[in-house]
Amino acid sequence: MAVHAHPDDESSKGAATCARYVAEGVEVLVVSCTGGERGSILNPRLADDPRVLRDISQVRREEMAAAAAALGVQHEWLGFVDSGLPEGDPLPPLPEGCFALEPVHVAAEALVRVVRRFRPHVMTTYDENGGYPHPDHIMCHRVSVAAFDAAGDASAYPGEGEPWTPLKLYYNTMSRGRITAIHEHLLRERGESPYTEWMKRWEEREERPVTTRVPVADFFAQRDAALLAHATQIDPDGFWFAAGRDLEARLWPTEDFELARSRVALPPLADGEVEDDLFTGVREHLAAGSAA
Predict the structure, then answer these.
(1) Residue 259 and residue 254: Cα distance in Å, rounded?
(2) Are the C-beta atoms of residues 143 and 213 closer than 8 Å to each other?
(3) Beta-sheet strand order (sheet of 122-125)
(4) For 28-84, what is the HEC assignment?
(5) Which end of the chain is more exposed for a tag (fewer CB within 10 A), N or C?
(6) Can you give the pLDDT at residue 244?
């Protein structure tokens, strides 16, 4: 189960990993906490489109359905309202009734209901900083962690289904190593890079540990299709596609994650080694339980 703040987040964070596991026969559910109603139109080709301007909510629902189909995943809306990204100095207050202002236990109850129905072994979400400081991303982290902890507790939310205990929780990681490798290659080969501003911003950000690198180069095409399905959010001529997937497959053929919680025993790793599978330890745990 991949828990995201807005439609399009699932396509830019861990999308190829989801597509890979679907191809392997794993059931994958993407949960969108909000409808993305307050998202800016980031594709200049659609900035003045009458239908987009008139009904962005419906457009984003259609985009999400197309992205889910491209990845082969199941999808569910959690039903909360996009908080928007506040801008200005000082920042304006968040709009009343938005996701980021919901009590955590209220939003967590909704997610616990989905966890108990879907029964995932592995969950993914964002770190405590949200990956970047969007209020909905930070709230998504809080709600996901609360649901991970509560779903298996029979005394928590007793009316929301039979308890189910997920076994591992991961944070999506936009690896600095990946962006750095592509950025430096582009500077050497082309003399310019679309990631220059990213690198400057990264100087002020904490580097997150990478514990898991999932090989997914064979699924970059599905990730691209899912990204492009979010036409209001993704500029096909923008930085997402500037490097070219052949180059990315050569330089960085993985999607990276940070293991936040594990309820299963993990095999020892040598110094410098990382997992290559989100289900490391899970299959062995389940096989041992079946044998018992």
Answers:
(1) 15
(2) no
(3) 74-80, 29-34, 2-4, 122-125, 168-173, 254-262, 212-215
(4) CEEEEEECCCCCCCCCHHHCCCHHHHHCHHHHHHHHHHHHHHHHCCEEEEEEECCCC
(5) C
(6) 79
Cα separation of 19 and 39, whole Å?
A: 25
**Residue 205 pLDDT > 90, yes or no?**
no
Could you read off the pLDDT of 142-195 as tens digits, one per residue? 999 999 999 999 999 999 999 999 999 999 988 788 888 888 988 998 888 888
- DSSP-derived pairing of the beta strands 29-34 and 74-80: parallel
CA distance 105 to 147: 9
Pairing relation of β-strands 168-173 and 2-4?
A: unpaired
Taking 70 as the threshold, does the pLDDT of residue 116 lie above it?
A: yes
**3-state SS, residue 255:** strand
Q: What is the pLDDT of residues 30-59, one digit of tens each?
A: 999 999 999 999 999 999 999 999 999 999
- From CA 122, how far away is CA 282, in angstroms rounded? 8
Please confirm whether the linkage preceding 253 is cis (ω < 30° from 0): no
Closest alpha carbon to 52 in 236, 230, 223, 226: 230
Q: What is the pTM of this model?
A: 0.95
Of the candidates 22, 13, 18, the one whose C-alpha atom is nearest the C-alpha of residue 178 is: 13
Q: 266 is written with which tokens?
A: 């993990």
CB 122 within 8 A of CB 277: no
Q: Which two tokens stand for residue 253?
A: 């053929």
Give the burial class of 108: count Cβ atoms within 10 A of its Cβ; 0-12 exposed, 13-18 middle, 19 or more buried: buried
